[in-house]
Design goal:
mainly alpha
């Protein structure tokens, strides 16, 4: 069973990003750490085939959303941001634009004043993530994997953990994304959402990803893909996420609010 690790309340002595290393951060001999779940030609083929099919199926919806954003909120339609990919190599992640300004904090809680008129419901249904199917086809992402982060958000992650989670391609969905589904709601109530996200949620996400990676299977990945649309729209899944995150934030409060 996947749980939130207690490491979220401890600051590591030294991290890759605190030393200024950005890319590549994965040493050549680190791949054996995640050998049981590293990418194979078969999994890459599955990613490409399924991403292509999903892109074709969602193309009409993407076209409608892009046109609506262009007409209601103006240009640009896409939001492009630098994230860390496999091996710590930066890449440009693509989303439908849901913020008025691309500047400012790298964390966007619920009711962010920068949210566009269409952005609230687009983000609620995670439709802004659909352009990342193209990132999967480009080989920068996988359909299932750890969520790619902005480099600045990873400073509190211990070096060994960061190396291990960056040993695989980041994913469009995954068990951690679903477990933290309500994070935008909880962050909105925090006095400093950016600090809470970086010092509490990101280390907890990494711990969650690492535990999942120890037991990852292709069958499990396919099941996650099938379940994701339903779980994203499920009030029950969101409520479970909300309760888990409340417990996590409550346990971390003494360390982050002193």
């Amino acid at each position: 069973m996947l749980i939130f690790g207690s490491a979220s309340r401890q600051k590591p002595r030294q991290t890759l990003l605190s030393r200024g290393a950005v890319a590549p951060v994965l040493a050549p001999d680190m791949s054996h750490i995640v050998s049981s779940h590293r990418s194979t030609p078969a999994t890459r083929v599955v990613d490409v085939v399924l991403a292509a099919v999903l892109l074709l199926l969602t193309a009409p919806l993407l076209a409608v959303l892009a046109l609506a954003i262009r007409l209601v909120d103006g240009a640009p339609v896409l939001f492009v941001q630098r994230r860390l990919g496999r091996g710590g190599v930066p890449f440009h992640l693509h989303k439908l634009r849901t913020l008025v300004s691309v500047g400012g904090p790298t964390v966007s809680p619920q009711h962010d004043p920068r949210t566009t008129r269409l952005g609230t419901w687009i983000r609620r249904l995670h439709l802004d993530e659909l352009p990342q199917l193209c990132d999967v086809l480009r080989g920068k992402m996988a359909l299932v994997g750890p969520r790619p982060e902005v480099p600045a958000n990873l400073a509190a992650v211990a070096e060994p953990d960061l190396r291990r989670v960056l040993a695989v391609r980041p994913g469009l969905t995954g068990p951690t994304q679903l477990a933290f589904l309500a994070e935008d709601e909880l962050l909105a109530a925090e006095p400093d959402p950016v600090q809470t996200y970086r010092e509490v949620l990101v280390p907890a996400k990494v711990a969650h990803d690492l535990e999942w990676l120890q037991h990852r299977t292709l069958r499990g990945d396919l099941w996650l893909l099938v379940c994701t649309p339903w779980r994203v729209c499920s009030p029950r899944t969101r409520e479970r996420s909300r309760e888990r995150l409340r417990r996590l934030l409550a346990s971390a409060a003494p360390a982050t609010r002193v």
